[in-house]
Specification:
alpha/beta; D-Maltodextrin-Binding Protein, domain 2; 2 domains; two-stranded antiparallel sheet
Length: about 425
């Protein structure tokens, strides 16, 4: 036990004393926040202005493509009244083509799409002349970018809204009556627990699920790579030969794994403290606005996080330890581990499906399976209330998986750390397990 603790202490202190560990521990939350916030800011402000020409064959939809001034708070907002407005970064050049062939009227404009920057336009949106009367009429959007679907959908939405208003007005409805008919309603997402308690649901739960799952997953893979690199380095430097002469390979393996696990828990603990300090202000602000944010982050959330982090970490790290033991270089180990890592990340690739339908057969099957269980079950706990026997069974299956992995890893580790040259094949690994 003393030798195991000595290895654990060495692995832990060797990592936490590094300047890079200290820097990244405090910098990582800032980077995570930047990754979450910057894309939306870039999309909102950094995409630049789009110049779009709208060729209206009906000649009656010009008002829909004119940016209206801001309305007083006493009036209905455009979204509530059913009207669609142009985005701030879109500048529209409206062309009245009533009585003309809209396609022919658009040809001079489409030619400008390849002009110099001052006169160039980014797209041409064509509304056929029979759009108000023909329910099978087709809109057309010419664009310089093949994937400019955001502008296409916004222009189509504005046009369809304006056409609907005109058709209703043509049937004798006044402007106020049209607004009433087309008024949109917002949706309050409510999660109903098994006890009948109502909780706010919706997009907040979705993002909390993504964030907490990322915190569960990333350190497990990150420190698994650290163990793999450490084993390869010790094999290369022949240090491992000295270590196994004074302790068993099992003590060395367990000490390394637990030492690096403590490093991961230390880093995540610091992150939770930082997020908690910032989140306290947000929770207080939300409480003043009548929102109960604490329902998304119940105390049990953090208890289950600790349990499933340890289970996920111990599951994944054994595989990385095997990769380091059977490989002679980091490049060789990465080639071996890469396809295995892709398989282990299946729950992450299916995260949207699991979050939006946590009780589906797919979600339940993944949560009760080896390797995938810890991550999938934690996501289900975050966004739903799975049966307690599901949770208990996942924990038992994960513990059994870890026991098998530790047994196999220790066997392979015992032979692999002293093996050099060609990387073993799968049949050779099986012989190592039987012989060791």
């Amino acid at each position: 036990m003393k030798k195991l603790l000595a290895v654990l202490k060495r692995e832990y202190l060797q990592t936490v004393r590094k300047k890079m560990f200290i820097i990244m521990t405090f910098l990582m939350p800032v980077l995570i926040a930047a990754v979450l916030v910057l894309p939306s800011l870039i999309m909102a402000r950094g995409m630049g202005e789009k110049k779009i020409a709208v060729v209206d064959g009906t000649g009656k939809l010009g008002q829909a493509f004119t940016k209206a001034p801001a309305q007083p708070s006493s009036q209905e907002t455009p979204r509530r009244s059913g009207r669609r407005s142009l985005p701030d970064n879109m500048k529209v050049e409206y062309v009245d083509a009533a009585g003309k062939d809209a396609e022919e009227a658009a040809k001079p404009l489409t030619a400008r799409m390849s002009d110099a920057r001052d006169t160039r336009i980014d797209g041409v949106f064509v509304i056929p002349g029979d759009a108000l009367t023909n329910t099978d009429a087709r809109l057309k959007y010419y664009s310089r970018a093949a994937a400019d679907f955001m502008s296409q959908e916004r222009l189509a939405s504005i046009t369809n809204s304006a056409v609907q208003r005109d058709r209703l007005a043509g049937r004798g409805l006044s402007s106020d009556e049209v607004d009433t008919v087309l008024r949109t309603m917002s949706v309050d997402a409510v999660q109903l627990s098994k006890s009948g308690e109502e909780k706010k649901g919706g997009i907040a739960n979705f993002f909390v699920g993504f964030m907490m799952t990322g915190l569960l997953l990333i350190p497990s893979f990150m420190y698994g790579l650290e163990i793999m690199r450490g084993i390869i380095q010790e094999k290369t430097d022949r240090v491992v030969e000295v270590l196994v002469s004074s302790m068993s390979t099992q003590q060395l393996l367990v000490g390394k794994i637990l030492g690096v696990a403590l490093v991961g828990l230390t880093q995540i603990g610091v992150w939770f403290i930082m997020f908690g300090a910032v989140g306290a202000f947000g929770i207080a602000t939300a409480a003043m606005a009548g929102e109960n944010v604490l329902q998304l982050l119940r105390p049990s959330t953090f208890v289950y996080f600790f349990i499933f982090f340890v289970l996920a970490y111990l599951t994944y790290v054994c595989i990385y330890a095997i990769g380091g033991a059977v490989s002679n270089s980091e490049k060789e180990a990465q080639q071996l581990i890469a396809p295995i890592t892709m398989i282990m990340m299946l729950p992450w690739f299916l995260l949207v499906a699991i979050i939006t339908n946590p009780d589906s057969p797919l979600s339940v099957a993944f949560s009760l399976s080896p390797v995938f269980g810890p991550m999938t079950m934690y996501v289900r706990i975050l966004v739903a209330e799975p049966p307690m026997w599901h949770i208990a069974l996942t924990i038992l299956i994960s513990i059994a998986t870890i026991a098998v992995f530790f047994w196999a890893t220790a066997k392979i580790f015992r032979v692999g750390i002293l093996s050099y040259g060609k990387r073993p094949t799968i049949p050779e690994l099986w012989r190592w397990i039987k012989v060791a």
